Amino acid sequence: MTRPVSSRPPSVKEWRLNLYLSEHDPETTARIVLDTGDNILESRAEAHRSPQDREVPEIGDELAAGRALVAMGHLLMRAAQGDIKAMGVPEEPAPAGLWEPQE
């Protein structure tokens, strides 16, 4: 079976993400370093244990890591938007929220 000349073989990329957790009770800090091969992005986030809560380090790890991953997602989206803008592609209007009336 032949494929059309215009089709490209799929490309595979590997991005390396390192997540570092540091606990200094009652605070847990997560630091993420993402190496895309072209760029390195870094995000940080924290979780704070309330003094009345039991010490469960896994919860602080999960909260701090989750928050740092969300922050990394925002960094990646911002980077993509900057790249799109640099290419001269016009911005599309943001979709209306679910609570806003549709026109």
UniProtKB/TrEMBL annotation:
Name the Pfam families on file: Rv2632c-like
The record's listing under InterPro entries reads:
Rv2632c-like, Rv2632c-like_sf
- The entry's protein name is DUF1876 domain-containing protein
Please tell me the species this chain comes from.
Streptomyces lucensis JCM 4490
